[in-house]
């Protein structure tokens, strides 16, 4: 089987995706065949740069029978409607988190995709369980760690942003901004470990941003199984450890750590490994520690999984529609909590 031809829609964030499709992980599986953006000059510029066709509209792109897949990287509001048009045209789609803010629309579009036999993949939650979460689940089973008790997760970076009048400045479209923009990966990770959420609480502040939305926030989540989670996300920290996505997960008989210690980055500022550690007790050891370094980073696009799904392959480890929707439900409740200042049911 040869490469699948793909068209990219939305060239702000989509520009980073094109780099993956032309020179990195996606190049093995896909051939960039077209680009499309509301900015016609940008569309022409990218088409010339990569030697592909420039499409004036999504409909024109969907009319190209040689292009089987679409990379959709537009702002999140209304994305489900665009996905609907894509899958209704008989094409498969890969997009970024979250693929929709409206829970009912999200459920509807996933059901329609299943009915049509079309593929919808996201970078978070990823279609295949990432290697770090796979290992965490293996440790949980092997050492009988028992009931989930709690987790703490954190991510930060250094943004000093100005008002732009875009969706980033609108709390309706970008609720609790640091959580929504960079902390959502942690929400999706925790859902795959702890399951359905019961209620949420929010705390946030504005320290350096010139946007009306916050740049410093934390989200508390109570899960239906009784476990409690906390996610801290901030645009205010410049310590050379941006996007580390640290995680501590407590079970009744052990604790798992991900990326707790400082990480080393390569010359490009990248680190695509997760540092894992388990601390527990066994019948032979009152203090048992295991460590592992695994390839992969939070939020990476799984191009091989997308390619294989387009070819009709199905995997038992593929993320469920329920797990995708659960993250959207948490975001919806978080948005309500931001407005009310109270705990909100999920």
Describe the secondary-structure layout.
Elements: E1 4-9, H1 14-23, E2 30-36, H2 40-50, E3 53-55, H3 58-62, E4 69-72, H4 79-88, E5 92-95, H5 103-116, E6 120-122, H6 131-142, E7 148-156, H7 177-194, E8 197-205, E9 216-223, E10 228-234, E11 246-251, E12 254-258, E13 273-280, E14 288-295, H8 303-310, H9 321-340, E15 344-345
Parallel strand pairs: 1-2, 1-4, 2-3, 4-5, 5-6, 7-10
Antiparallel strand pairs: 7-11, 8-9, 8-15, 9-10, 11-12, 12-13, 13-14
Helix pairs in contact: 4-5, 5-9, 7-9
Would you give an account of this structure?
By secondary structure, the chain is of the alpha/beta class. The protein folds into two domains: 4-122, NAD(P)-binding Rossmann-like Domain (Rossmann fold, 3-Layer(aba) Sandwich), CATH 3.40.50; 131-297 and 328-345, 2-Layer Sandwich (Dihydrodipicolinate Reductase, domain 2), CATH 3.30.360. Helices cover 31% and strands 26% of the residues. The protein has nine helices and 15 strands. It has helices at 14-23, 40-50, 58-62, 79-88, 103-116, 131-142, 177-194, 303-310, 321-340; strands spanning 4-9, 30-36, 53-55, 69-72, 92-95, 120-122, 148-156, 197-205, 216-223, 228-234, 246-251, 254-258, 273-280, 288-295, 344-345. Strand 2, helix 2 (40-50) and strand 3 form a beta-alpha-beta unit. Residues 134-256 form the GFO/IDH/MocA-like oxidoreductase domain. Belongs to the Gfo/Idh/MocA family. GO terms for molecular function: nucleotide binding; oxidoreductase activity.
């Amino acid at each position: 089987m040869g490469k699948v031809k793909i068209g990219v829609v939305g060239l702000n964030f989509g520009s980073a995706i094109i780099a993956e499709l032309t020179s990195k992980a996606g190049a093995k599986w896909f051939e960039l065949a077209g680009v499309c953006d509301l900015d016609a000059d940008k569309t022409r510029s990218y088409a010339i740069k990569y030697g592909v066709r420039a499409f004036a509209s999504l409909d024109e792109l969907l009319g190209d029978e040689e292009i089987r897949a679409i990379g959709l990287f537009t702002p999140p509001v209304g994305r489900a409607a665009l996905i609907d048009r894509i899958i209704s045209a008989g094409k498969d789609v890969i997009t970024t988190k979250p693929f929709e803010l409206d829970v009912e629309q999200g459920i509807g579009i996933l059901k329609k995709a299943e009915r049509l036999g079309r593929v919808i993949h996201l970078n978070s939650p990823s279609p295949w369980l990432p290697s770090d979460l796979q290992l965490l689940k293996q440790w949980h089973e092997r050492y009988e760690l028992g009931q989930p008790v709690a987790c703490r997760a954190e991510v930060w970076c250094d943004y000093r942003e100005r008002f732009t009048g875009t969706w980033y400045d609108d709390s309706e479209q970008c609720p609790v901004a640091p959580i929504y923009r960079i902390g959502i990966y942690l929400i999706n990770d925790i859902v795959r470990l702890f399951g359905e959420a019961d209620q949420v609480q929010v705390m946030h502040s504005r320290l350096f941003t010139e946007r009306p939305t916050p740049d410093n926030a934390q989200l508390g989540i109570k899960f239906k199984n009784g476990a409690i989670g906390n996610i801290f996300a901030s645009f205010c920290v410049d310590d050379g450890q941006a996007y580390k996505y640290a995680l501590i997960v407590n079970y009744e008989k052990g604790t798992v750590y991900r990326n707790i210690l400082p990480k080393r980055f390569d010359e490009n500022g990248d680190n695509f490994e997760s540092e894992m550690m388990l601390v527990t007790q066994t019948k032979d050891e009152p203090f048992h520690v295991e460590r592992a370094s695994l390839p992969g980073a939070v939020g990476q696009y799984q191009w091989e999984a997308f390619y294989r799904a387009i070819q009709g392959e199905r995997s038992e480890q593929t993320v469920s529609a329920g797990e995708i929707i659960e993250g959207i439900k948490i975001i919806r409740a978080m948005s309500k909590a931001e407005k009310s200042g109270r705990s909100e049911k999920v």
